[in-house]
Write a structure and sequence with these properties.
By secondary structure, this protein is of the alpha/beta class. Helices cover 43% and strands 16% of the residues. It has one domain: NAD(P)-binding Rossmann-like Domain (Rossmann fold, 3-Layer(aba) Sandwich).
Length: 247
């Protein structure tokens, strides 16, 4: 039986590349999307061309109850990897909207990923991978490195993810491994300009931003070749969190 990975947020960019990397490695897939169904269908077609059987599933991480209902509808007997690539990234809202925004970001970026891992833990425990199944989510270097003005609720949610996944690693051991990839810029946002990109790159010791491929090969490594690693926060930022190299 082929191993099975669920990639949450597989419509494009990092999530898509992770899904395709698993397909290349011989996994079948459950691919989730929130609003970009066309992108998810494209990812599904690419994975199928690589030999994977792929199932599409809509999930909104800001709606925990609906997300858990969708996951349970699959009635999975076995799951080998759960990778949460999706996240909600927003600037702080005006004060009268702040409480609602903070709650929404906390659900999407921390509470629902943790609840999803717990809900799928019976299937994850039946994985036959060396070291057990692998659960991962993406954090943010700015939690511990340099706070970003106007993103306090987003960073609070990512800080909670970092800490809650450490707890989850203890809770789900010894048959399930749980790690966080603490990411810098992986795939430069299309909304940002060339001058901003150049200024950012000057502050990265390796002289570039990350690519979806950088993230995907790390996810594959942690899933298949790191059976003694759990509860870790692995930094993937080209050295950005070491401090600026140039101003």
């Amino acid at each position: 039986m082929r191993p099975l990975a669920m990639v949450v947020g597989a419509s494009r960019r990092v999530g898509r590349e992770i899904a395709l990397e698993f397909a290349r490695t011989g996994f079948d897939l459950v691919l989730t999307f929130h609003s970009d169904q066309i992108g998810a269908q494209e990812t599904c077609a690419m994975a199928t061309e690589l030999g994977a059987a792929a199932t599409l599933l809509r999930m909104d991480l800001a709606d925990m109850d609906a997300t858990l209902l969708a996951a349970r509808s699959l009635s999975l007997d076995k799951l080998d990897a759960l990778i949460v690539s999706a996240a909600m990234w927003e600037k702080d809202a005006p004060q009268h909207e702040a409480d609602a925004q903070a709650a929404r970001l906390m659900r999407a970026n921390a509470n629902t990923p943790m609840a999803l891992a717990r809900a799928l833990s019976p299937a994850l425990r039946r994985s036959t991978l060396l070291g057990g199944a692998s659960v991962m989510a993406f954090g943010d270097i700015h939690v511990d490195f340099r706070p970003m003005p106007e993103f306090s609720h987003y960073l609070a949610s990512k800080s909670s993810l970092h800490q809650s996944f450490r707890q989850l690693a203890v809770e789900l051991a010894p048959h399930i491994r749980v790690n966080v990839i603490v990411a810098g810029v992986i795939a430069w946002p299309q909304s940002m300009g060339a001058d901003e990109l150049a200024a950012y790159v000057r502050r990265v010791p390796l002289g570039r931003v990350g690519t979806p491929r950088d993230a995907a090969v790390l996810v594959r490594f942690l899933t298949l070749e790191a059976p003694f690693m759990t509860g870790s926060a692995i930094v993937l930022d080209g050295g950005r969190s070491l401090g600026p190299t140039q101003d």
